[in-house]
Amino acid sequence: MTAGLLPATVIGGYLGAGKTTLVNHLLRNAGGLRLAVLVNEFGALPIDADLIEAQDDDIIAIAGGCICCSYGDDLTRALLDMTAMDPPPDHLLIESSGVAIPSMIVGTLGLLPGFRVDGTVIVADAETLCRTAADRYLGDTVLRQLRDADLLILNKIDLPTPRALADTCDWIAEQGLPRPVPARQCALPPEAVLGLVPSTTQPVPDPAPHAAFETLRLTPAAGCDPQALARRLTDPALGVLRAKGFVTDLRGTRHEIHIVGARADVSARATAPADGMVAIGLRGQLDTAGLNDLVTAPAPASAR
Amino acid sequence: MTTTIYRAARILTMNPMCPEATHVAVRDGRILGVGPLADLATWGDYELDERFADKVLMPGLVEGHAHAMEGTLWRHTYCGYFDRIDPDGRVWEGLKSIDAVLDRLARAEAALEDPDAPLPGWQLDPIYFDNRRVTRADLDKVSATRPIGVQHASGHILNVNSRALELAGLLRTGINHPGIPLGEDGLPTGELKGPEAMTPVAMHVGFDRDMLACDARGLRDFAKLCVRAGVTTVTDLAARLNDDAVEMMLRVTGEPDYPACVVPLRFFLGLTAADLIAHAADLKARSTERLRMGRIKVVADGSIQGFSARLRWPGYHNGAPNGLWYIAPQHLSEIYHLALENDLMVHTHTNGDEATDLVLDMMETALRAHPHPDHRFTVQHCQLADTAQFNRMGKLGMCVNLFANHHFYWGDEHYRLTVGPERAERMNACRTALAQNVPMAIHSDAPITPLGPLFTAWCAVNRITASGRVQGQTERISVDEALYAITMGAAYTLKMDHEIGSIETGKRADFAVLETDPTKVAPMALKDVPVWGTVQGGRIFPAGAQ
User: Is B169 part of the contact surface with chain A (CB cutoff 8 Å)?
Assistant: First the structure.
């Protein structure tokens, strides 16, 4: 059951890549969602002054009901505090420190009751990534961070020369990493980063249009195999960065599906809105026909 | 203006201008003079105190790397392999089998009145039980209804019973976490490795308190342990020092009979470099005679036995992947720059040699930008440093505080498993540090190993491991060098050598009062020199009276 579980996104990447810019961007464009943000330290998160409503020692209240907490070196306790919040936030962002290994934070989340890991977003600096990855002290740490990415944001694409940018993209491909989402100042549509926050009462809304992204609304056939469908949606060839929706399996049980890049999450739901699914991808990269075929195909015999 | 002159069997001053004496004069808590009685009598009226006539006085010992939580841990059940003395002077016999551990836990369990109260234990070390692991079934025999958790000596592993797992929601199948081994039934075995796996359960077994913090009772107990060990100045090396903690520490250390000077270092985590510097500067200004604040502690990497230290090629002997950074290089650099600029001292934890390289690189750059004639930034632990690194440390004006005790407790493990023979032989290379002119201290890291500078000196002198092997014969130092390291050496790394660390005119009247002369016993008996107690700021604290 995902009802009552707080979806959590881990935002990782080395210092200066744009993690904080991304957090600010998401806070500013939360669209009525109550976001909670955990950061290692406040000072590194220069939240725009107009967003701040009140500040305490460890908590900043942000316009729109969002909050930001610093966790210092006690992430577990901060996470447990988060589950006790009333009313609960809609989505949790955890900004990791510049040298943290995000999968370790994901591991911690998996041990605590009350969370659903929504995915790991790694922000990389298009201008300095290759240099940092070759650094004697940092190379292996940065590579481990990149390998944890469900969604890889290549930020500051306006800074390198086109040739250098191409080289960086080639290097990313050579490492077998997910195809990066290019960005300037991490200005991505929130739904591409956060997914669409689960709701038991509302159908999946149409995201706002965005020049660099496109959205595809899918209508899955009833009686599908949710696990198999979710797995197949992570095929890189389909170009799905994010997908979310509700489907019904052969026994009539309702399921919620979340896709973040290579990560698929399926859980049964006692109550769910009408079947439907929304997929988000980079403009021109979503395989519309392939996706429609996939969701309308009957479940394979093995799943019956 | 009373002057008291103490006569002692022998006074080892650690002051080369007057290395030994029979009398020391104390006035207003400070040393008026040291030498023959006739010389001291020239200061005027005095009271001759003969109570130390058959004792040996040394400068009060200085522990340059300990944690005040040693004082709070004693409220938990001691499960260690080695005999250890608690703050009240009781010797807790070392437990030589898992059954003995379970037996002691069962006795502690029987003494608990509240049926739901957790039962925490500490200092378990299965290395000495042929690595047979403690399981939740073992601990369930102690109690199946009360949460039980026993922390390992390394601090990196926690063993818990079924009830504890249940309370944390982890007594279930389907757990996929590298720090949580599963049994054949698919359920956790009860062993939790690493902070990520330990923390969610630790709070249910009585380790809920912030382990870096210390309450008033713990701080008093910590000082009792100091008196037993001959220590008059002790660090608390990773304190958060929030307002409440500072108020408490000022109050407790200010009590008239508080027997030690505490030097807490502000831990770097959770603050920007600029905020950290501002806080440290503010704390420095609030320091008192017995609470010295204003220094900063940074942690660069993890631990060698936890495979989280950052090693250079060829890495871990067993092929484990390289460890973790706990601070980004830019962040470390920023702290060094700002601290040098603001004349604040930074001590940096490194275990692996790659972490030490990073510290040296960042320090060199920061020093070029902010030259400082006498910064004494200190590398703490620094266990794997080689000759070239010590040489650089010396050139940069850095100090080192080596983890001599570690060599005894885990040297065999490092030889066999973590770094292999050659690097294990040169771990905590005291001889090389001194040869490269690096001011050096040695430490216990209490509670990781027991507080006791004479034992620490014994470790550095003999380099014996727990199995009885001499590991790294060429890195042994002399008894005199080791005694210097636990007095003047540690005082120097804290930039307090002008006021403590030796017995000479003007310094604080801090003495370790010993029953025998540590320079006259066999080096192998150094750890067995009995401590009568201490004199701190002229106040007398017999260990037996606590």
Answer: yes
Q: How far is residue A236's CA from residue A115's CA, in Å, rounded to a whole number? A: 27
What mean pLDDT is predicted for residues A286-298? 87
CATH 3.90.70.10 fits A6-191, yes or no: no
Delimit the domains of chain A by residue range: 6-191, 199-303
In A99-212, where do the E strands start and end? 115-125, 151-155, 181-182
Amino acid at position A283, single letter: R
- How many angstroms away from the CA of B279 is the closest CA of chain A? 13
- DSSP letters spanning A116-135: EEEEEEEEEETTTHHHHHT-
Residue A46 scores a pLDDT above 70: no
Dump pLDDT digits (tens) for A70-107.
887 788 888 988 888 888 898 999 999 999 999 999 99
Which of A87, A73, A86 has its CA nearest to residue A38?
Answer: A73
- Cis amide linkage into residue A113, ω under 30° from 0: no
The CATH fold assigned to A199-303 is: Hypothetical Protein Yjia; Chain: A;domain 2 (3.30.1220)
> Which chain B residues are closer than 8 Å to A41 by Cβ?
270-272, 275
Q: By CB neighbour count within 10 A (0-12 exposed, 13-18 middle, 19+ buried), where does B375 fall?
A: buried
pLDDT in tens, A50-74: 777 787 777 788 877 888 888 877 8
Q: Which residues contact B267 (CB under 8 A, 6 or more apart)?
A: A73, B212, B238, B239, B240, B241, B297, B299
Res A303 pLDDT > 50: no
What letter would DSSP give residue B356? H
Q: How confident is the model at residue A140 (pLDDT cuts 50, 70, 90)?
A: very high
Among B56, B18, B23, smallest CA distance to B42 is for B23
Domains and CATH numbers, chain B: 77-202 (3.10.310.70), 216-536 (3.20.20.140)
Q: Which residue has the higher pLDDT, B314 or A244?
A: B314
Distances (CA, A) of B487 to B443, B463, B481: 11, 20, 10
Q: How far is B264 from chain A (nearest CA, A)?
A: 18
pLDDT (mean) for B71-90:
94
Tell me the per-residue pLDDT of B54-70, one tens digit each, with 9 for 90 and over: 999 999 999 999 999 99
Q: Give chain B positions within 8 Å (CB) of A108.
A: 196, 199-200
Say if A58 is an interface residue toward chain B (CB within 8 Å): no
A101 touching B (Cβ < 8 Å) = yes
Q: Which of A73, A132, A140, A142 to mutate to test the interface with B (most CBs of B within 10 A)?
A: A73
How far apart (Å, rounded) are the C-alpha atoms in residues B148 and B93?
21
Q: Which tops the pLDDT comparison, B375 or A112?
A: B375
Q: Does B365 touch chain A (CB under 8 A)?
A: no
Nearest alpha-carbon partner for A12 in A193, A197, A161, A174: A193
Residues contacting residue A136 through CB under 8 Å, at least 6 positions apart: none
Is the pLDDT confidence value at A210 over 90? no
Quote the tokens at residue B117.
């109260």
Closest-CA residue of chain B to A46: B272
| pLDDT tens, position by position, A171-186 | 999 999 988 999 999 9
pLDDT range class, residue A205, cuts 50, 70, 90: low
Question: Nearest-5° angle of CA B253, CA B507, CA B348?
Answer: 65
A-proximal residues of B, 180-199, CB under 8 Å: 180, 196-197, 199
Tell me whether A111 touches chain B (CB under 8 Å): yes
> Average pLDDT of B115-136?
90
Q: Which residue of A has its CA nearest to B362?
A: A137
Model pLDDT for residues B466-524, shown as the tens digit of each residue: 999 999 999 999 999 999 999 999 999 999 999 999 999 999 999 999 999 999 999 99
Residue the block writes with tokens 């216990």: B444
